[in-house]
């Protein structure tokens, strides 16, 4: 664009949150929070209910005024972006359209305000597969269609940065799979994708990086595999054998910790599966099952946020 | 700013609000026209409807002058018309919170002052549109009524056109008040009810209170009708300055002051408010 507006590819698309704080009357909803989100990756923004995820996103988007601290996108505060929706697309609430307005008109209103051509509304609707329902009123949309319309609105300006608050809410399995592919594609194109959610199994499939907060504070930030890997000490080996006592005795020599599980299963920690197998072989113990149980994002999340999720 | 105003007008056009309010306005306009027809008859020929000589004071006689009877007819519909444009103004703001579209609006335009100004302009455009339609209807029907009462159309009188113009200003200003109400009271129902009560109860209450006070403390009290917006805007639409009432320009000045005040307070509130 030659008129001095930020083109979609201008700016690095990095999101920097530094010292962000929001006090409501008695609650520190967000408490001196700092993190960085890189472009070209999908970042999961995780936290228990009431952790301050939505407040953080709203401060990032200039909808809520921070008590202290600042947040920038490509080095600029949202309010100072010359043409915000050409740079940042955001989906914050599922139901953010007038119930009596058609889907296409909802998008045209945004186009008019942003000075985008009217055709962008049709293009964005096609992008999310909602063209057949263009002239239906918003109140007739299913929850999944509402989410798609929200994403269409966010994509109107072909933004470099995408921010989504709980986008999987209300989507059916097919819709969730579509969303996963859609967001991964956007990240692969070099865009920044920040997604808040508490669907952890979905996040493990979708996100490259995670930012985990609890009680308004940062708990952990990093690549998903690193964060999960950091909890490797919680890995357990599941063993099923008809000779429990012999195996427990054999494993004792390897400093393994053995706990009884449900249905006669033994849960072994402190050693890896080959060690358990070799110990069993040496002791001539018959094994019926030998499985490594690695921690998943959900387990890690619960471990990291334990005791911090209290209602405040 | 042009694109923001276009967006605001598109918001109104793409819902059924405008034609529902239009349909509402039309029968109310007809009702007031009927009332004004009878009132014109009474003013032009008091004896025919049995108004005793003793009650025909100076103000009554002034109101009975042809030009003032005509002005009343050419500005017919103001009482409910401004009420409806005010409610439209209320809805233009409260819809954003009721339907949670405020987030999208302020994401698209983080400069909130611009959003409020665009809403003020869009509401004013609507107000003026309602004025154009009602004035058009009045210009067709009022000469017919006047000629049936053996009075000329009076359209050669400057006072008539002044009254029509000031009536338009009243429509514009009431739509601005509507925006102010909508900003001050975010709840759609709350804002609508408050605006309605302020207008109707303020109108009737002020008339009663002022006439009681005037009986007690003298006619100068009647000048206080200026500070009641509903009365001030009616004052603007009289043909000539009536004896015993404040001048029309004063009514207009007070209305403009109210509009500036509500517009400014509204903008300041929206700038500070957290949208969640």
Automatic annotation (TrEMBL), chain A:
Pfam family membership, one: ABC_tran
UniProt keyword annotation of Nucleotide-binding present: yes
Gene3D superfamilies recorded: P-loop containing nucleotide triphosphate hydrolases
Entry-linked PROSITE patterns: ABC_TRANSPORTER_1, ABC_TRANSPORTER_2
ABC transporter domain segment(s): 15-240
An annotated Gene Ontology molecular function: ATP binding
Entry keyword set: ATP-binding, Nucleotide-binding, Transport
Family recorded in the similarity comment: Belongs to the ABC transporter superfamily.
Name this polypeptide is given: ATP-binding cassette domain-containing protein
Organism in which the protein naturally occurs: Plantactinospora alkalitolerans
TrEMBL record, chain B:
PANTHER family noted in UniProt: INTEGRAL MEMBRANE PROTEIN-RELATED (PTHR37305), MEMBRANE PROTEIN (PTHR37305:SF1)
Assigned keywords, A-Z: Membrane, Transmembrane, Transmembrane helix
Protein name listed in UniProt: ABC transporter permease subunit
Keyword ATP-binding appears in the UniProt entry: no
The keyword Calcium is assigned to this record: no
Segments traversing the membrane: 18-38, 79-99, 120-146, 158-184, 196-214, 249-270
């Amino acid at each position: 664009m030659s008129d001095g507006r930020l083109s979609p590819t201008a700016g690095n698309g990095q999101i920097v949150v530094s010292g962000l704080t929001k006090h409501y009357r008695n609650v520190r909803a967000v408490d001196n929070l700092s993190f960085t989100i890189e472009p070209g990756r999908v970042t999961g923004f995780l936290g228990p209910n009431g952790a301050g995820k939505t407040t953080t996103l709203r401060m990032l988007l200039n909808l809520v005024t921070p008590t202290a601290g600042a947040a920038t996108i490509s080095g600029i505060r949202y309010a100072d972006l010359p043409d915000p929706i050409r740079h940042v697309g955001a989906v914050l609430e599922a139901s953010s359209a007038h119930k009596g307005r058609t889907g296409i008109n909802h998008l045209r209103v945004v186009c008019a305000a942003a000075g985008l051509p009217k055709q962008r509304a049709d293009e964005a609707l096609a992008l999310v597969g909602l063209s057949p329902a263009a002239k239906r009123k918003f109140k007739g949309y299913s929850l999944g269609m509402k989410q798609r319309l929200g994403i269409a609105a966010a994509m109107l300006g072909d933004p470099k940065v995408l921010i989504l608050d709980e986008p999987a809410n209300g989507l059916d399995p097919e819709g969730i799979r579509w969303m996963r592919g859609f967001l991964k594609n956007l990240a692969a194109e070099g865009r920044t994708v920040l997604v808040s959610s508490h669907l952890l199994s979905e996040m493990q499939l979708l996100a490259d990086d995670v930012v985990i907060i609890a009680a308004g504070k940062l708990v952990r930030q990093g690549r998903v595999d690193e964060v999960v890997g950091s909890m490797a000490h919680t890995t357990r080996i599941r063993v099923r054998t008809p000779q429990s006592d012999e195996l427990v005795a054999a494993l004792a020599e390897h400093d393994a910790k053995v706990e009884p599980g449900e249905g006669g299963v033994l849960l072994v920690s402190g050693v890896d599966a080959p060690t358990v197998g070799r110990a069993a072989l040496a002791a001539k113990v018959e094994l019926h099952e030998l499985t490594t149980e690695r921690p998943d994002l959900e387990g890690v999340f619960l471990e990291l946020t334990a005791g911090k999720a209290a209602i405040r | 700013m042009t694109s923001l105003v276009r967006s605001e007008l598109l918001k109104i056009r793409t819902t059924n609000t405008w034609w529902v309010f239009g349909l509402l306005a039309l029968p109310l306009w007809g009702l007031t026209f009927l009332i004004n027809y009878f009132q014109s008859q009474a003013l032009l020929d008091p004896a025919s409807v049995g108004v005793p000589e003793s009650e025909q004071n100076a103000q009554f006689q002034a109101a009975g002058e042809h030009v003032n009877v005509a002005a009343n007819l050419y500005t017919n519909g103001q009482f409910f018309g401004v009420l409806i444009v005010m409610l439209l103004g209320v809805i233009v703001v409260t819809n954003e919170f009721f339907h949670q579209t405020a987030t999208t609006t302020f994401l698209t335009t983080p400069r909130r002052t611009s959003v409020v100004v665009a809403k003020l302009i869009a509401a004013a455009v609507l107000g003026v549109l309602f004025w154009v339609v009602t004035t058009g209807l009045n210009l067709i029907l009022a000469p017919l009524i006047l000629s049936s009462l053996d009075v000329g159309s009076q359209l050669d009188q400057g006072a008539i056109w002044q009254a029509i113009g000031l009536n338009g200003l009243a429509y514009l200003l009431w739509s601005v008040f509507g925006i102010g109400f909508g900003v001050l009271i975010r709840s759609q129902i709350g804002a609508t009810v408050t605006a309605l009560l302020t207008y109707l109860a303020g109108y009737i209450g002020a008339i009663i209170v002022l006439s009681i006070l005037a009986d007690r403390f003298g006619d100068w009290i009647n000048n206080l009708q200026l500070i009641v917006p509903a009365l001030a805007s009616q004052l603007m639409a009289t043909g000539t300055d009536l004896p015993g009432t404040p001048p029309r320009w004063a009514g207009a000045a007070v209305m403009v002051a109210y509009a500036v005040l509500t517009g400014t307070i509204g903008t300041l509130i929206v700038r500070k408010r957290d949208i969640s």
